[in-house]
Amino acid sequence: MFTAWMIGVFLAVGQHLLYSSLHHQAIEDETAKIREVLYGRALAYFSKVAFGGTVIIVYRQRLWKTLRQRALSIWSIDQLFLATEDPTLFFNWETILKAPILTVIALILWLIPLATIIFSPGALTFGDFIEVSNVTINVPTLDFSAESTNDWRTPLVLPDGTKKRSVMFYNTTDVKSEADGWFDYYDQPSLDLTRVSIMSVYSLESHSLNRQDARQTSCGGNFNCTYTTSFVGPGYKCEMVANGPEDNEKLRDMGAPFNTSALVPEGKDVYYAQVDIGDYKSPQAGNLSAQGGVPLGSIPDDLGIFKYEPVLWIGYSINSTEKLPEDSPLAESWTARYDPHIFRCIHYETRYTVNWNYTEPFYTTEVTREYLSPIVDTNFTKLENGLPNVQNPAPESNFVSPHDVALYKKTAAYHAVGQLMRKFLSGRIELEPEFPGPSYPRVFSQITQTRLVSNVTSTPVEDLPAQLESFYSDAVLSLFSSPQMLVVSEESIVVNRTRVQSTFVYDAGKLWGCYAPVILLTFIILVFGMWTIWNDGTTWTVGFSRVMVTTRNQTLDDISRGACLGNNPMPLELMNTKLQFGVLNEYSDIEVLGINGLSEVGHCAFGVASELSPIIKGVPYAGLNRKARPRSNSEGRTIIRKKEKAE
Ligand SMILES: *[C@@H]1O[C@H](CO)[C@@H](O)[C@H](O)[C@H]1NC(C)=O
Ligand SMILES: *[C@@H]1O[C@H](CO)[C@@H](O)[C@H](O)[C@H]1NC(C)=O
Ligand SMILES: *[C@@H]1O[C@H](CO)[C@@H](O)[C@H](O)[C@H]1NC(C)=O
Ligand SMILES: *[C@@H]1O[C@H](CO)[C@@H](O)[C@H](O)[C@H]1NC(C)=O
Ligand SMILES: *[C@@H]1O[C@H](CO)[C@@H](O)[C@H](O)[C@H]1NC(C)=O
Ligand SMILES: *[C@@H]1O[C@H](CO)[C@@H](O)[C@H](O)[C@H]1NC(C)=O
Ligand SMILES: *[C@@H]1O[C@H](CO)[C@@H](O)[C@H](O)[C@H]1NC(C)=O
């Protein structure tokens, strides 16, 4: 009884452990999945068997006690004996009223499978689970210093045979790199870089380009992921310097190449850019060979030196949409006021911090820029009249010479990226006045092919300085779309990954919600059973042998006459006869007290209540193996018959 209960508890714990191990496990194989589910159900079934076993043993123990205490109709006795298979005892008032404990125990027995077999496997379900993990994997990053150590003569070849591409092309003083004091100097942006920047600009998207499988490669598989990378690259730092004609003095002091008089409404241009002043000369000298730009005579002192990085001077006018007063002289040409702005952008070495967010189906980047230092930190000297001397940047100590190879190549790489962008910005857009009209923009710049120009008015967007900064950083980040570029490298970083997975989901609360009442009730029944055994002083069970030995009573022979086949239906009269289990009063009181001692007391059997006396604990009643007094005690039989007649 106790062992069965313990086994039941162990099986329930086993089911819990099995389910716990399956919790949030994604099992791809369907058969394996079904197998795990069946293991769980098997455990549930066996625990039902075990708990049921405990309850049945107690039930049977109690059954005999009840039969001893009360006379019940044979009908009810049948039902009590068959309680495990036949639930009709729950509809019988006699069993409910005369054997309430037994009925309750039988009811619990019937309910155990409901909790264990039917409901407990429901604690394990199948559902979407968002797996979150932090892993350290290699993600792409940019490293412009890779250009520093690159030599075009010995390109870096990847294991799959692709050559890493530089962002620029070089000229050199010696193709064979043998002559004394040879050096390479910058020629122009490479075709790969040109392709990437043109694609980025022409995409008109307000985000950088990326490779098709960027999410898979960056997240290390089919995940959603976020991570932050930081790298150093080129960036334009823009600063508004004039917001109207009143700032023109300031502009002149700053050495601006133009002022608001060039811009609408004073001038013709709604956009005007000077972005090439002081640019790196191409060709660098007059006597370069067609092969690698090797100087044919002596090498000029300043060959290839970066003396100045062009500053972007950009002016644009914005339609304020405020109507001009009638008496304004400008009202002859315009309906609304135009506000001219001029800003300046300096090319900086910039620390990018990018929050990548690869979440299907899109990806987003959040870029913060920290401007470190100007790429070439020189300014024009001033002429006597206060204007900048564009031929003479200073200080010379900040020039970047090709002899300083590492710095030079990195600077050249930044310069190349900037050079391509400047190409799109240079030029101007004229705007025809509204009167006499019609008003239309006349374009002398590639900027209209970019997202910096409004698609509604065909004039520059309002927040042009900020847009230009991000426009340029998008172009830089678009290098990620071209992993064969030398500057695209890898970095080991902690990536926050999530993945939606179809997994087992185990709810321990549900499982114990099923098992706790079962374990508790069966434990109470178990304790009750043990108390009953102690109280009875013996254990009981049911079975044919028990029926055989407990029905050796002449009275029963008499009343069951005619029903010996046991076929259905039994005579109603017989079924309604009330029987009880007890000590048959076969012997007279004198005999019970017995000259032959205690071993000779009467035998226990079913009978009608009047011929029985209660079984007393500890009394050794006549057993089968102790055939005591022969049953031919005619005197006893007579007594019984007399009693029967009396009833
Ligand atoms: C603005 O530019 C125009 C033309 O270049 C020039 O004539 C004018 O003096 C400038 N104004 C100031 C305040 O510098
Ligand atoms: C590099 O050499 C080529 C071939 O001579 C020449 O066309 C080009 O202008 C040179 N580049 C520079 C920046 O001097
Ligand atoms: C400027 O904006 C006003 C108000 O929206 C509009 O009426 C006018 O046509 C605009 N000017 C031009 C040149 O588009
Ligand atoms: C990433 O993008 C998704 C969808 O756009 C958003 O729900 C999520 O909050 C973002 N994650 C972070 C860390 O910004
Ligand atoms: C160049 O000019 C800028 C802005 O006027 C200034 O911040 C910077 O220090 C100057 N650089 C040098 C090397 O003087
Ligand atoms: C026009 O520009 C706005 C703002 O830049 C953008 O949201 C919109 O999609 C553009 N329209 C088209 C048709 O490209
Ligand atoms: C990524 O997130 C989106 C939106 O939350 C979701 O629909 C998608 O299934 C997720 N992808 C993966 C691989 O988990």
UniProtKB/TrEMBL annotation:
Annotated TM spans: 42-60, 101-124, 515-534
Q: Where is this region: Disordered?
A: 627-647
Top-rank taxon, per record: Eukaryota
User: Could you tell me the keywords of this UniProt record?
Assistant: Membrane, Transmembrane, Transmembrane helix
Q: Does the keyword Membrane apply?
A: yes
Name used for this protein in its record: Uncharacterized protein
